[in-house]
């Protein structure tokens, strides 16, 4: 009987999460594609990465993601602003972003976002073959990432009001596989 109850609860959690990301992706698609005439894929990917059915976990992930996105953006902009556009700036920027995220910010949740966003900003400069255009394009993409995180958190919060999820203590992977 416990197995059936757990199966039902897990499946409903998956359904709730699927509805959550469907609503958030639809909002982002409408906002960015039709109102801003921009490709919403960065915002949607960020929303999915920052989404979580349990609001307490969603807030923790949101905070960590935003901080590391801003670190990556700042590092990317600083590296891009120094000198011209050069493909060797990508490994330099991502390495610096890892070091800042690891030893200054020290928020391990979503810490991979710092080097990803540093690379995003630098790559925009390389694609545009212009430092200024790269900075503008990089900031736009980082803005879309932040927008995706914000919409994901807001939709998760609304879903938590309409369809609350019972918080259960986290189980180690080995125990949950045996159950």
Structure explained in plain terms:
- Helix 4 runs antiparallel to helix 5 (113-128).
- The two termini are 13 Å apart.
- The longest helix is centred in the N-terminal third of the chain and has 34 residues, at 2-35.
- This protein is mainly alpha-helical and 179 residues long.
- The chain has one domain.
- The chain has helices at 2-35, 41-50, 55-81, 89-105, 113-128, 131-162, 173-178.
- The model is unreliable at 174-179 (pLDDT under 50).
Question: How would you summarize this macromolecular structure in one to three sentences?
Answer:
By secondary structure, the chain is mostly helical. It has helices spanning 2-35, 41-50, 55-81, 89-105, 113-128, 131-162, 173-178. It is built from 7 helices and no strands.
Please give the structural blueprint.
Layout: H1 2-35, H2 41-50, H3 55-81, H4 89-105, H5 113-128, H6 131-162, H7 173-178
Could you name the key traits of this structure?
179 residues; mainly alpha; 7 helices; disordered C terminus
Mean pLDDT metric: 82
Task: State the total count of DSSP E strands.
Answer: 0
Order of helices and strands: HHHHHHH
How is the main sheet built? none
Number of helix segments?
7
Strand % is under 5%
Radius of gyration, Cα only, in angstroms?
19 Å
Low-confidence segments: 174-179
> How many structural units, i.e. domains?
1
Distance between the termini: 13 Å
Helical proportion? over 70%
Q: What is the 3D form?
A: globular
């Amino acid at each position: 009987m416990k197995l059936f109850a757990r199966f039902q609860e897990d499946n409903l959690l998956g359904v709730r999460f699927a509805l959550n990301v469907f609503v958030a992706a639809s909002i982002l698609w409408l906002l960015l594609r039709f109102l801003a005439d921009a490709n919403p894929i960065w915002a949607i990917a960020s929303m999915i990465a920052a989404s979580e059915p349990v609001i307490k976990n969603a807030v923790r992930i949101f905070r960590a993601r935003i901080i590391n996105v801003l670190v990556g953006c700042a590092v990317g902009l600083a590296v891009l602003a120094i000198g011209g556009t050069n493909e060797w700036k990508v490994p330099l920027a991502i390495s610096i972003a890892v070091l800042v995220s690891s030893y200054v910010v020290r928020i391990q949740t979503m810490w991979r976002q710092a080097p990803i966003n540093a690379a995003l900003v630098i790559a925009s400069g390389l694609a545009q073959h212009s430092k200024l255009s790269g900075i503008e394009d990089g900031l736009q993409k980082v803005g879309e990432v932040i927008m995706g995180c914000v919409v994901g958190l807001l939709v998760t919060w609304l879903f938590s009001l309409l369809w609350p999820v019972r918080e259960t203590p986290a189980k180690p992977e080995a125990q949950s596989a045996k159950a």
